Amino acid sequence: MWCQFHESFVGLDELTCALRGETSADKASSERNTAISTNMRLVWAALLIQNHGGYFIGCNIELTSKLLGMTELTFRKTIKLLIRRSVISTVVDGVKRNAFFERLLPIYKISPQSSRRKVIKLGVSLSNDSFIPFRLISELREFYRRVKKSGQQDKYPEQTSNLSNEQYFELAEVFSDKQLVLYVSHLSLSAILSLVPMYANHLNEVSGPKVERSNFLAQQVRGMLRHGLLCEQLPADADADADADPDRQKQKEYIIVALANEVDMVILELAKWWRDYLDKFGLHIQLHGYLPNHFMVSVPPPHPPLPVAMMSCVLEAFVPDNENFYDCMLLDDRLLAGKVFPIAR
């Protein structure tokens, strides 16, 4: 667990801030003079240690509160206090229960607080310009839209899953919920941001077949998705599912496997880029986030003149606060300063 913590975006600087109760937020005087309580420091440190790519998944609250020796109610109240102090933020405010999933608890994003570090942006190029929204989600929502537009529930457009049209439509109907789509996107992103550094660190290893590393990655991704969506731990409890509706199980398994396959591909692509950035910056750099709907354009130096380059994907990295680290992209093994722009909609 400690190795995962060190490879994550937080590191020792953030843990030190938590234990000391030091925040970077510029609050109004009435709040600024309010001390960070012992409970707040304890919960803050626990969130950091259990983070996945800077996220804390709500379904971990029960276990984490037990480990801290406090009630769930106290834990939740403490989280609200940390939100008020801008230590964490709520990115998804939970999803109500539906035909496939129990109530999904909120997902939180941990905000960096250390004054010794800063966030920079890194350009990368992927086979797809953007991996969010995920193709699976887009296809489900488009299928649902077309069925509703036709007004004929018994006639379905073509789809290529291993589900019947009726089963696929049931899934599509559930994923017409924008809050659920947002939840799945952040859950998947937490898996990507936490597993890219781990996988990148093993790319140059000569021991262990590549197939074994890929299988290990796939297992990790599926485990995180199952835990976040179904509150299951790997390996799945076969006895617990024995009495479940087989159609529902097939639909759930389709979602987990199809989404995991997409997440796997993103991790494999990003890990190669992250390995290259690690070679340039060393272990001082830690993956922090992803900017959807943005791209980066190079800012060429005056000598020698270089053509302007563009990268379709923008990552955020947590680095030491000095001039050696800046928004940039890698082109032919050279670092070029970069400027980020939103994609016009």
Q: Bin the helical content.
A: 40-55%
Tell me the Rg in angstroms: 22 Å
- State the secondary-structure class: alpha+beta
Count of extended strands: 10
Calculate the terminal CA-CA distance, rounded to whole Å.
41 Å
Question: Would you list the SSEs in sequence order as H and E?
Answer: HHHHEHHEEEHHHHHEEEEEE
Largest β sheet strand count, sense and barrel closure: 7 strands, mixed
> What portion of residues belong to β-strands?
15-25%
* Tally of helical segments: 11
Mean pLDDT level: 85
Given the C-alpha coordinates, what overall shape results? globular
List unreliable stretches of 5+ residues.
Answer: 1-9, 26-30, 233-240
Order the strands across the largest sheet as they lie in space: 5-8-4-9-10-6-7
Structure notes:
- Helix 9 runs antiparallel to helix 10.
- The chain has a seven-stranded mixed β-sheet. A three-stranded antiparallel β-sheet has the order 1-3-2.
- The protein starts with a helix and ends with a strand.
- The chain has helices at 2-7, 11-20, 29-32, 38-49, 61-68, 72-84, 135-150, 165-174, 178-200, 210-230, 246-281, and strands at residues 55-57, 88-92, 107-110, 117-124, 286-291, 294-298, 310-311, 313-320, 328-331, 334-342.
- The protein is 46% helix and 16% strand.
- Residues 1-9, 26-30 and 233-240 have low confidence and may be disordered.
